[in-house]
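**Protein of interest**
===
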Amino acid sequence: RSTNSICSLSNQITSNTTQISQMSNHTQDVTTLLSNESSLANKTVSSMEEINAQVNSINEAISVIDQISFQTNILSLNAAVEAATAGETGKGFAVVAQEVRNLASRSAEAANEIKKIVEIATFKAKEGKDISNKMIEGFESLNNSIDTMTQTIQDVTSSSMEQAQNMQNINEAMNNLSNDIKQSVEVSNKSKDDTFKILHIS
């Protein structure tokens, strides 16, 4: 009965070890998935940084447009003054100067609208980058936890395998002991029979 119990226990340990190994494989799959997701998040961060770089270039262009619009506006004012000084002769030039001034004003307004759009895009890009960074931190934290769990599983697996081996050794020892006892009983019985025969003959 003892050997059967030990054998059953050894089989149970072996079964548990197999299940633990399967868990270890699952954690490896999760680790791979997390690595892929983390890589995508890193690419998202890189894309957001590229967007920020493009936004900076657009802001520089808007700044140039503002400066040109400002200078054009001043030039058109000076031209209007000169046209007024010229009297009747400068009327045509005054009309052109006013159109130039209107164009400069519309350019400045358009630049301001673009600037507002760029500011929104910048905010959204920063928001997306922050979210991606938090995702990366979460992935790293989860990955560390899985690494710890994987190591624990490996330790338990190793311990279970060692325990199963010990159980097998005990089972073999019990079987050997049982065989030795049987042989001893057989020898004892034979000796008893032989003794009885000798006594009977005597």
